[in-house]
Design a protein that fits this description.
heterodimer; A: alpha+beta; 6-stranded antiparallel sheet; 20 helices; B: alpha/beta; Gyrase A, domain 2; Four Helix Bundle (Hemerythrin (Met), subunit A); 3 domains; 6-stranded mixed sheet; about 20% strand; flat
């Protein structure tokens, strides 16, 4: 280890790993510090990556050259494409991973990076000199210098674990020490802090489960990879199991509600509404007859199962009691208890879109510390923070993804301009332009951006170019090929679509319902020819089949962008904009949006305020003799 | 503190001889302007209480008038700013002196529509309400007045807000469908979603039903009196005007061949056009007049085709009637007092004729029925709509609602024909933006300029 780095990343979770890797790939000297190097890339909650919207983020991180896609492919033991019955724009790839293999894969990918050093040490303070970041001080008292510091401490800041109604235990994760000194240090730097909570369910011993009383759920047999630039070896696949918690469990939970940390008044922080504990589910939806429970394998070489759906902070004996009311779990043995954890986060309106802390140049935050939940959300922030930390050190323009470019852009813009009042999770409905932000086109959207910023290796760059070229070839084929009614007949018959009356372009054929790209290709080229890869075809199919919709959404995005382009300088005298409501002035002064569109997304800023803002800014710009005056108070 | 907003003043009543004139002052300096007009040492009147004060010249202290003053503090005022309303004496001198004094005390003369523009920008009104205020003031018919008052009271705005909220709800149903594929609750079936959207389509469509007539409420429907020479057109024209003289104004631009006047018939606005007599073999000058008449017939919302009762329709009349496109025709048998009995001497009805009735200008026979018929022919849908149904009086509103209706329709079709929900939802978002346009959620500056240009100074 050196005593001086360009970028130091504090924390080795999903945000930290991506931040460190991105910074190193950007070509600057990078150090990752974490209290336990054995746990870099640890999955502290559910051993799964992806899902609706989140799966797209995993693909976006990968397209930017990140770690997550590769580590997922290398450790996944079940793959499912969620929302497959719906349109391809909202398909959500989801992988169950081997909890032990995932961090091993992450570590292997980090070890490939020559510009990255790893060191096992807790960080107690961020050093600030003359208002900007100077480095960090470790628990052992070492001062390490850095041009930029990325803090990704997850739930470790003053973390407090609750199992049952007792006072709680200081911890960052079960069995790991929290970071108290660092939290205090950051608070001293003038940052506002708030508290959230989240929880995990118990784990159980698979040998004590009667699977005959549960429903087996196998993965999709689908050729699919998260990683676009690298073919990892995908492990053997495993099923999940579904069962249902009913009245028996309800009774146990109700009878013990007062012993729950969540309901016994021990926890003050807010938790996510859409990832509720079983206590929450039963209190808030008393009429729901039953709740779905997924038994998910923790790995290939363990019988341990993750009980997804029964997150809780009830005492251990109650957990065992309610588990045993669930069909299939009558004789179950618990291997780990579920718990709730409360932790500090820094309300993210204190950040810029680069994830740099306002007012502390060189200090970046990423992941749960910003009030989000989920590995994917953490990874997405981590990669953006890591890239920007490196760019900052090199004195280059910042890297900011827009809302119509990536879910990561939506995520960060939501955090920075709206702030959070519960742990933030991505949904497709948070994106105004979700037809553009698909899992199948992440590399098309972001690959070239990453390549231009030097974030891809030469080899990855070649893979990207090949893939885009292959897609373009098929796109052109569909645009230019004319299909005769005779050739189209069998395809249309299969799709239950009416016959053609005259030769028609292949793309028109594809736009019909239930007609697939592969079908058209096969019919039009019976001799075979060079068959495009399934993933290439999938991207082209969505792109063409729904091009009308995609174009409409693109047009809407462009229209809003022209409004978004109405730039607001960061130093506008909002306090003096008296045509705006008091609340709007206060919020605007706090957030200091860069564009009108951002201003419009701030809660409390009304349409009338926006209109006034435009006029105030124009007035300000046009005023030739703009003199401050105290005359009218 | 920076002075971003100045203080404006304007005469709100018509200049000229009148007992009282109202001057309004709005802006952060409203109270200080008033204070400069009060005698030295005189305290500002209490807020929201009409107070009799003496107005003095701010420079030489000479007495200008005695006035009733009401002071409003922001944001509880029309504009949302500090405001002062002065009721001084009217006439040629006083209002001008007081306004000039206001100017010297720091207020500037308001621009056209500036009070209402400020109210809009302060969020006191939305765009539809602001437009309604212009209509309330400028209405030349009781019908437009009624529609405008309803719109000013948020009748249209609430309806639009409700529609928009329900479109968002449909979108939310889809979001649940898309974002939570593995939840306990089964997603809402797509045909339920489509049914909701279809309901919204129907409501939007119903609102649009009155739009063409609603737009006529602003300018007045064109009612063209036509017929061969000496068929009694001009007498009827004068008779219809004469009864409503009080609210009739002669319009400028009247050609020598067609007379136009605004008139209210049964509470609804019309532009009554008297044209040159139509005949087959006219002289050159007359032919020009007939050409003008033909053009008016094309633009007509309703045609009052006159024939003398004792003569009935001629072949020539029928030839002219065939040229009428679209507008309903009322066949009027004039000079009923001269006809012997009920049956006309000439030909019977013609295909274009929607209604037929007898009128005598001399006895007044049939005039009441005529007004009633013409009103229902042109404004039947507005008359039939319930009192609480907003009438769309502006093309801007109707255009936006048409976009919303189209997008809702396409959404349903798309969803039912198997287009994926998240694709189809694009149409919902477009429908929302269209609805937002009506009430003015972030509109371009030039749209605002157009909207507020319609106001004259002081409103």
């Amino acid at each position: 280890m050196r005593s001086r780095y360009d970028v130091i990343v504090v924390g080795g979770g999903h945000a930290g790993a991506e931040a460190a890797a991105a910074s190193a790939r950007a070509g600057v000297r990078t150090l990752l510090l974490t209290p336990d190097l054995g746990r870099v890339g640890q999955m502290s909650c559910n051993p799964a990556v992806g899902g609706v919207a989140k799966g797209v983020v995993a693909r976006e991180v990968d397209a930017l050259g990140g770690v997550m896609g590769r580590a997922t492919d290398a450790s996944r033991i079940q793959f499912r494409m969620l929302n497959r019955s719906k349109g391809p724009a909202v398909w959500g790839p989801r992988a169950q991973c081997d909890r032990a293999m995932y961090p091993v894969a992450v570590r292997a990918i980090l070890d490939e990076l020559p510009m990255l050093d790893l060191f096992q040490e807790m960080v107690d303070d961020v050093l600030i000199d003359g208002g900007r970041v100077a480095g960090v001080r470790t628990r052992g008292g070492m001062n390490l210098e850095a041009g930029a510091v990325v803090v990704t401490t997850g739930t470790f800041l003053r973390g407090r674990i609750h199992i049952g109604g007792e006072a709680g235990l200081s911890a960052g994760r079960a069995g790991e020490a929290p970071s108290v000194a660092l939290a205090e240090g950051l608070e001293r730097a003038g940052l506002k802090v708030a508290r959230f909570k989240t929880g995990t369910p118990p784990r159980i011993d698979g040998r004590t489960v009667d699977f005959s009383r549960t429903e087996r759920q196998d993965g999709d047999e689908m050729e699919y990879r998260f990683a676009a630039y690298c073919d990892e070896v995908i492990p053997a696949q495993r099923p999940c199991w579904i069962t249902w918690a009913g009245d028996g469990l309800k009774q146990v939970v109700r009878a013990n509600l007062r012993r729950s940390a969540l309901y016994g008044g021990e926890i003050a922080g807010r938790g996510p509404r859409y990832c509720p504990s079983i206590e929450d589910k039963i209190v808030r939806f008393p009429d729901a007859p039953r709740h779905q429970v997924f038994l998910e394998p923790e790995g290939l070489r363990t019988t341990e199962l993750y009980v997804n759906g029964l997150s809780t902070s009830l005492p251990a004996d109650t957990q065992l009691e309610f588990l045993r009311t669930v069909p299939g779990l009558e004789d179950v043995m618990m291997t780990k208890v579920g718990y709730a954890i409360e932790y500090d986060y820094f309300p993210p309106h204190q950040l810029r879109h680069t994830l740099e802390v306002r007012g502390v140049p060189g200090l970046f935050f990423a992941g749960q510390i910003n009030g989000t939940t989920g590995y994917e959300e953490a990874a997405g922030q981590g990669i953006v923070a890591g890239i920007n930390a490196a760019l900052k050190v090199r004195g280059e323009d910042p890297f900011v993804l827009e809302r119509d470019q990536a879910y990561i852009g939506v995520l960060i813009d939501d955090l920075v301009t709206r702030g959070v009042d519960e742990p933030y999770r991505l949904f497709t409905s948070r994106a105004e332009f979700r037809l553009l932000l698909r899992q199948d086109n992440a590399h098309r959207r972001l690959g070239p951006l990453a390549r231009d910023r030097g974030l891809l290796t030469d080899e990855q760059g070649v893979r990207l170019a090949d893939r885009l070229e292959a897609e373009d070839r098929v796109l052109v084929w569909f645009e230019e090929t004319v299909v005769t009614p005779e050739v189209a007949a069998p395809v249309l018959a299969d799709a239950g679509s009416s016959e053609l009356s005259e030769p028609t372009r292949a793309i028109e054929l594809l736009r019909r319902p239930r007609v697939g790209a592969a079908d058209v290709l096969r019919a039009a080229r019976p001799e075979g020819g060079d068959v495009p890869r399934a993933d290439v075809l999938a991207t082209v199919e969505v792109e063409l089949k729904y091009s009308g919709y995609v174009a409409r959404e693109r047009a809407r995005a462009d229209r809003l962008r022209s409004q978004a382009d109405f730039a607001l300088s960061r130093d506008l005298p909002y306090e003096g904009f008296r045509t705006l409501s008091f609340e709007a002035r206060e919020k605007l002064a706090q957030v200091r949006p860069g564009t009108l569109a951002q201003a419009g997304r701030i809660p409390g800023v009304s349409p009338a305020d926006l209109q006034n803002l435009v006029l105030e800014v124009r007035r300000l710009a046009g005023a030739t003799s703009f003199v401050p005056s105290g005359a009218d108070g | 503190m920076m002075t971003d907003v100045d203080t404006i003043a304007a005469l709100s009543t018509v200049p000229g001889l009148s007992a009282v004139a109202v001057i309004r002052i709005s802006g952060p300096g409203a109270a200080s302007v008033l204070s400069s007009l009060l005698p030295l040492g005189c305290a500002l009147p209490e807020e929201r209480r009409a107070t009799l004060v003496e107005l003095r010249d701010p420079d030489d202290g000479s007495t200008l008038d005695r006035a009733l003053v009401t002071r409003f503090a922001a944001p509880a005022s029309y504009t949302g700013e500090d405001m002062v309303e002065l009721s001084c004496h009217g006439g040629w001198i006083v209002p001008g002196l007081v306004l000039d004094a206001c100017r010297r005390a720091g207020a500037r003369e308001a621009e056209a529509g500036e009070f209402t523009r400020r109210a809009y920008l302060r969020g006191k009104l939305d765009l539809a309400q602001a437009e309604a205020i212009a209509d309330v003031i400028e209405a030349r018919s009781r019908a437009l007045h009624r529609a405008a008052v309803h719109q000013m009271d948020r009748g249209l705005s609430d309806r639009i807000a409700d529609l928009r909220a329900r479109v968002v709800r449909v979108e939310a149903l889809l979001a649940h469908h898309v974002d939570f594929p593995e939840e306990d609750d089964a997603p809402v079936p797509l045909d339920t979603v489509a049914a909701e959207a279809r309901g919204l389509w129907r409501e939007t469509d119903a609102m649009l039903a009155t739009a063409p007539e609603g737009e006529l409420l602003r300018e007045g429907a064109v009612a063209v009196l036509a017929g061969r020479p000496n068929a009694g057109k001009s007498s009827l024209y004068n008779a219809l005007l004469g009864e409503e003289r009080a609210i009739v104004t002669e319009e400028p631009g009247t050609t020598r061949d067609a007379l136009i006047a605004s008139v209210e018939l049964g509470g609804f606005p019309f532009r009554l056009v008297d044209t040159a007599g139509l005949r087959g073999d006219p002289g050159r000058v007359e032919a020009l007049g007939i050409e003008v008449a033909r053009r008016w017939l094309e633009a007509a919302d309703v045609v009052l085709f006159c024939v003398p009762a004792q003569e009935g329709l001629t072949e020539e009349d029928e030839a002219f009637l065939s040229e009428v496109r679209g507008a309903p025709v009322v066949l009027i048998e004039t000079k009923a007092d001269l006809a012997s009995d009920g049956s006309p001497a000439g030909r019977g009805a013609h295909a274009a004729v929607a209604d037929k009735l007898r009128v005598s200008v001399r006895t007044g026979e049939g005039l009441g029925v005529l007004r009633e018929r013409v009103r229902s022919l042109v404004y039947g849908r507005v008359l039939g709509a319930g009192v609480d149904v907003p009438v769309l009086t502006r093309r801007r509103h109707a255009d936006a609602l048409r976009v919303a209706r189209t997008e809702l329709g396409v959404f349903c079709e798309a969803l039912m024909s198997g287009v994926p929900a998240e694709m189809a939802a694009t149409h919902l978002r477009l429908a929302e933006s269209a609805l937002e346009e009506v009430v003015g959620v972030v509109v371009a500056d030039d749209v605002l300029d157009v909207v507020f240009r319609e106001f004259c100074v002081g409103k």
